[in-house]
Backbone:
């Protein structure tokens, strides 16, 4: 027997207990153990087999770390068929998360019981594959095609009560999985229940699979796995036999397994778990945080306060005046009403948060007892310095003093206090109670426990936290500024903002850069351009004025109803604003530029290559620790298509030499903007990839 599956005999029942922490992934040892266990139970004359998982869960899926490596026998589909074919009565007892290959093992068992807190699901499409061990063939047979399509194409986790209604499990009972499983198996034996193989059930009735395929493809914005999975479910209905349906599933599974999308999505899965693991934080204890202060109750401050309140942290919110404080409370109440509507909190929790957990204040003394304070005031260095000098005067020793600045120098802000070791940047993304990304900006003197406290807070607020160093814009906004500039250059040279937005949404971005500017407010970019011009632009840098003209006319994007697009009340999205084309034409004429045409492919290539080049500089300078940190920032803060894995994973998949060649070629037309990142040159010279750097850091 393998150690990953323990064998025990209780009367007529052979018990197979998986023991492969942390999530009982179905790696090769577990698969061998299950196969050996079934064979032994049959050889020893047991009448039933119980399969369950030790520790926190039943099998949470195939072992994702094995993907892309040579497969080792027994394969999961064959194992599932073998379990189902057993003449013994096979029962699975589920707790924790029975996902992917885990649910497929359960579906090959003849009966399934689960504890009420268990969740089941087939989330494979989120990893760029489809259920490849019979899930697309067995689930429709027990739950019907409609429910199976929903579960398989969304990958959602289904609670035990719903799974019971759908017929995915047979019984829900509180208790220890081993105990309830044993009792259920005995009950089935005693009642003479038949062996019940899902694969032997009749094929389910078909639906209009072409229509479902098209709808799912459209919803996936270029992601293929959910749509391909529809075709596998179709085979469950239409293939002449169960075995032929399984063969079709296998064929489609292998297609997806070979795809770049699978590589991108699995990179994203591990990258988002790796960002919080920093060697310098090993063994460093975060400082306790029981209550926090937020300074400034605008959209950002109110969003941060909401996120903290939803995580159960009491908040003291400081504003300049009573009126401003009450307006901030209204904003928070609006955010909480949204959370209530979406079922994230109950009415009782909503009321308790507003009445007991939120304190309003107008004087700094109110912050004397908080453990951590986040400043979200106007983006102006002098204002920030005054705030931090005041915090230094009133906050208790050891309190963490955080700024939510999105580009200002955190070292300079820290220098306004006598305790720079306690100062850190916590850069939330708007709306802060919704967006998952948190950049944890570590300044020169920030103490390790303060960094650990930032990560602990991020975890508590359910954020994906990424360490960043200090520079203008940190990781995300610095890279954004470069690819946004690249888009501006393409506009000057002949592409329209609308063509660029369309090319990039076709590539998979949630929105194009010009639609994003309209959403954020064109005044933000305008202020940045004015600041940079005031600081003095490099004479080699290209500049443009067409967007300034929109702002001068009072058009700030969605909030004023007009920007690059025109927004009509009550309608989703906008239509292109034709005036923009005239402004661009005037700008080109003033600069003596003769416009040329761009293909969509060239737009995407230039935009992506500029992003990769800046990202390589960010990693090379140590602003991001690893390429994967950049990838996670772009995935969670900037609408980057997850199935492409992030810009540096995309770069690896494209090939770094070709990217460097393009930068060198384009530098002939603009050698200021297209300066190759030294790290990119080094990797190409050494024949290495960004992923190699990720591995070096493990
Ligand atoms: C499949 O089954 C295909 C079948 C067809 C075959 C033919 N493999 O997320 P956490 C690790 S596809 C390997 O922090 P949580 C994870 O990396 C699979 N490792 O915990 C982490 O390691 P670290 C379908 C895995 O409690 C540790 O376990 N299944 C796997 O927040 C803890 O994970 C899925 O897609 C795995 N399958 O959430 C489920 N799963 O400590 C994927 C986890 O070294 N997993 N690890 O960083 C999840 O969704 C979540 O991990 C969870 C637990 C809900 C199971």
Residues:
């Amino acid at each position: 027997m393998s150690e990953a599956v323990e064998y025990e005999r209780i009367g007529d029942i052979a018990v197979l207990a998986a023991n492969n922490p942390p999530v009982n992934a179905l790696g090769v040892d577990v698969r061998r153990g299950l196969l050996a266990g079934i064979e032994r139970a049959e050889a020893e004359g047991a009448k039933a087999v119980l399969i369950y998982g030790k520790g926190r869960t039943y099998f949470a899926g195939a072992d994702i770390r094995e993907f892309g490596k040579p497969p080792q026998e027994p394969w999961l589909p064959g194992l599932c068929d073998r379990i189902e074919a057993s003449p013994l009565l096979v029962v699975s007892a589920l707790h924790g998360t029975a996902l992917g290959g885990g649910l497929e093992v359960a579906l090959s068992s003849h009966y399934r019981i689960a504890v009420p807190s268990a969740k089941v699901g087939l989330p494979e499409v989120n990893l760029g594959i489809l259920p490849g061990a019979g899930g697309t063939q067995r689930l429709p047979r027990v739950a019907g095609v409609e429910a199976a399509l929903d579960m398989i194409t969304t990958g959602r986790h289904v609670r035990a009560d719903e799974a019971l209604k759908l017929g995915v499990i047979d019984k829900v009972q509180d208790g220890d999985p081993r105990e309830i499983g044993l009792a259920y198996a005995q009950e089935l034996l005693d009642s003479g229940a038949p062996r019940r193989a899902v694969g032997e059930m009749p094929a389910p009735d078909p639906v209009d699979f072409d229509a479902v395929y098209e709808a799912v493809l459209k919803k996936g914005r270029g992601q293929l796995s959910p749509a391909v999975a529809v075709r596998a479910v179709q085979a469950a209905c239409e293939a002449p036999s169960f075995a032929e349906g399984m063969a079709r599933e296998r064929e489609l599974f292998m297609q997806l397994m070979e795809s770049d999308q699978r590589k991108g999505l699995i990179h994203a899965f591990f990258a988002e778990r790796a960002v919080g693991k920093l060697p310098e934080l090993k063994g460093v204890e975060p400082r306790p945080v029981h209550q926090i202060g937020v300074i400034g109750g605008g959209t950002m401050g109110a969003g941060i306060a909401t996120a903290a309140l939803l995580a159960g942290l009491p908040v003291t919110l400081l504003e300049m005046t009573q009126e401003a404080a009450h307006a901030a409370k209204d904003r928070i109440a609006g955010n909480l009403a949204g959370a209530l509507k979406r079922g994230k909190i109950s009415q009782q929790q909503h009321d308790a948060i507003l009445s007991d957990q939120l304190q309003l204040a107008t004087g700094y003394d109110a912050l004397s007892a908080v453990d951590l304070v986040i400043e979200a005031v106007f983006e102006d260095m002098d204002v920030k310095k005054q705030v931090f000098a005041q915090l230094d005067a009133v906050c208790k020793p050891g309190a963490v003093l955080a700024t939510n600045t999105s580009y200002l120098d955190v070292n300079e802000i820290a220098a306004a206090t006598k305790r720079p070791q306690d100062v850190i940047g916590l850069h939330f993304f708007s709306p802060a109670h919704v967006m998952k990304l948190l950049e944890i900006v570590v300044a020169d003197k920030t103490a390790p426990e303060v960094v650990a406290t930032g990560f602990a807070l991020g975890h508590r607020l359910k954020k994906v936290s990424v360490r960043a160093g200090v520079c203008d814009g940190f990781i995300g906004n610095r890279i954004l500024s470069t690819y946004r500039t690249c888009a501006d250059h393409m506009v000057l040279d002949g592409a329209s903002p609308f063509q660029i937005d369309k090319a990039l949404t076709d590539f998979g971005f949630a929105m194009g850069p010009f639609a994003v500017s309209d959403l954020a407010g064109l005044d933000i970019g305008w202020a940045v351009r004015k600041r940079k011009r005031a600081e003095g632009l490099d004479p080699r840098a290209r500049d443009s004025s067409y967007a300034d003209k929109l702002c001068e006319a009072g058009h700030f994007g969605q909030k004023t109803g007009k920007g690059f697009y025109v927004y009509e009340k009550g309608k989703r999205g906008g239509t292109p604003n034709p005036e923009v084309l005239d402004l661009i034409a005037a700008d080109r004429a003033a600069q003596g530029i003769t416009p040329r045409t761009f293909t969509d492919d060239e737009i995407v290539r230039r935009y992506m290559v500029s992003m990769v080049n800046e990202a390589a500089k960010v990693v090379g300078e140590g602003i991001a620790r690893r390429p994967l940190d950049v990838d996670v920032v772009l995935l969670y803060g900037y609408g980057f298509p997850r199935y492409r894995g992030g810009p540096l994973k995309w770069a690896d998949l494209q090939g770094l030499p070709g990217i460097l060649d393009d930068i060198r070629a384009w530098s002939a037309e603009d050698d200021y903007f297209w300066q190759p990142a030294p790290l990119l040159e080094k990797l190409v010279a050494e024949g290495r990839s960004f992923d190699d750097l990720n591995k070096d850091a493990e």
About this structure: The longest helix spans residues 600-620. Residues 22-23, 25, 60-65, 76-77, 97, 99-101, 123-124, 127, 131-133, 273 surround (2E)-Hexenoyl-CoA (CB under 6 Å). The chain has three domains: 5-258, 289-470, 476-519+530-545+584-697. DSSP finds 29 helices and 19 strands in the chain.
